[in-house]
Amino acid sequence: MTGDPTRAEVAPDAPARPGTGHEDDWALEGRTRRDVVVVADRFARFARGERVLTVSGLLALLAADDTDPEPASCHWVVHLGQGIDATDHDLLEAAREKSGVTVTFADPPAFRRVPERSVLVHKDRSENVLLAGVHSPSAGHCQAELRIHRDNELILDHHTGEHVQGIVIVEAMRQICIAQFETAIRPGLATPAYAGVWKRIDLSFQDFLFPLPATVESLIEESDLGRESNLKFRATTAVRQQGRTVATANIEYSMIAQGRIDALERRKADQATHAYLG
pLDDT category, 157, cuts 50, 70, 90? Predict the structure, then answer.
């Protein structure tokens, strides 16, 4: 392979079974392989040049007619970017089946992978969940994929360029800590529900986060489980993308029994209102 790494001339004798997502399906006689990323239209500012397409851009490519010979002359290998979910996959798959353009999804199951249940990260709306595939490779260590929905509350009003804003990183770190607690710790406790209270965050940004696949992880460094109504933790968290560390944080937080935090918050809310009104 020479020149542009997104373009590769296909060997004439290579096997051809398009649409399954396997590497041996990618080669089609007489066509040039083109690897592209598809992202939600929300990330249109990132989708420039030849390597990144929005959903709308890919649909337009699939609708190309004979007056634009380039799409039909290529075998397009589509990789998952942020903001894409199963509904987008179904839409693109339907367009692919009707199109004369040859398109393969590089990892079809990834396009259909659902985010975690909203209750696992203490959110009410599924579009605000930032994690998928939560798992614990070892005791006290939790990992997940970063999955940003196109209508996530944190990205609806952003004006600072092609990257994903830092507040998304902060929320992803909060969610991985909550998910770690809910999956690895809370099932062994008698108390049914907890709320997270953050005490301290020491956060460092090392690089930009872009609308591409990324991972989030948390490692519990210290814990105090002596009082089941008020469990205390210190964890290090990180967001990584294609081998780069985007951000790291040391977080101190407590998981407090829901009944206790409700009473404490009500009392402090009354105090705050009284102080404001005099």
Answer: confident
